[in-house]
Amino acid sequence: MNHWEGVVAIKFTIGTNGRVTNCMVIHSSGYKILDDTTCKIVTKRARFKPARDSQGNAVVDEVSGPEVIWLYRP
User: Fold this and answer.
1) Which of 9, 11, 44, 63 is the most exposed place for a label (fewest CB within 10 A)?
2) CATH of the domain at 25
3) What pLDDT does 2 receive?
4) Residue 64: inside a domain
5) pTM for the structure as a whole
6) Closest to 68 in 3D by CA, of 44, 39, 48, 45
7) 28/10 Cα distance (integer angstroms)
8) Does 23 fall in a domain?
9) Inter-residue contact 61 to 11 (CB < 8 Å)
10) Nearest to 40, CA basis, from 22, 28, 26, 27
C-alpha cells in the first residue's frame, strides 16, 4: 500500500449549469495521482449555484478552490 499524503490546491471553472467544466492544479501535492484524483473528483461530484450577471442570467465563473488535504490513515 502506498502512503501518499499531500495538499493539492486547484482552480476550476463553473459552467452556467453549476457543474465544474475545467480543473487545474495550481499547487501540486508532489504526487500526480493525488493531483489528478482531486480534479477528477471535483469535476465529477461538485455542484454549485452558478454565478449571475446583473440581469440574473447564469454566467461562467472561475474559482480558486480550497486546498484538498490527502492523509494516509492506516
Assistant:
1) 44
2) 3.30.2420.10
3) 84
4) yes
5) 0.88
6) 39
7) 9
8) yes
9) no
10) 22
Q: Is residue 1 part of a domain?
A: no
Residue 22 CA to residue 30 CA, distance in Å, equals 21
pLDDT on residue 39: 97
Count of structural domains within the chain: 1
What pLDDT is recorded for position 66? 84
> How many Cβ atoms are within 10 Å of 29's Cβ, its own excluded?
21
Query: Which grid coordinates are listed for 73?
Result: 490513515
Among candidate residues 63, 39, 38, the one with its CA nearest the CA of residue 50:
63
Split the chain (74 residues) into runs of 10 and give each run's mean pLDDT.
Answer: 92 98 97 97 96 98 93 90
CA–CA gap between residue 59 and residue 3 (Å, rounded): 40
